[in-house]
Amino acid sequence: MDDTLLWNGANTGNSIHAEQGPDFPTVLRSWRLRREWEAHLRVFCGEWQSLSPDDPDDPYLATMNGCANQRFLIRWRSIGGVPVRFGCGTVAGDVGTIVENELPAPAVRGWAELHGCGWPLWRFVDQEDGSNLGDIAVAVQYWIASA
Description:
Layout: E1 15-18, E2 31-44, E3 70-78, E4 84-92, E5 96-102, E6 109-115, E7 119-124, E8 133-145
Antiparallel strand pairs: 1-6, 2-8, 3-6, 3-8, 4-5, 4-7
């Protein structure tokens, strides 16, 4: 099966998956690719981390309004190969982080399709050796609705 068929531009909700993600699509019907970038972030035990809206080069532009006007396609992996918790939700200064969906078990890689208000969320898992942080490599495609 063509990997691009796994991305569903008609999806209006958020979907998250644990495993090697499909290749990014070059076309999504009714959507236009606005930009694509890669990022790295450090995740810690005890708190959820996400991509930054304040990054001067590659801001993650989730919004609280117009959720259906944009989509984020995300692929990620744990750089050290250590499983991390992965979910999606809302990040807002006035209410903090709200986890709306989480994988049933930690994973070393995954992918997600998120609506314009959805945030990818990662959280490090306590390790037997005492490690309490890890690094995540993330690839993002940002799509906007088109006529």
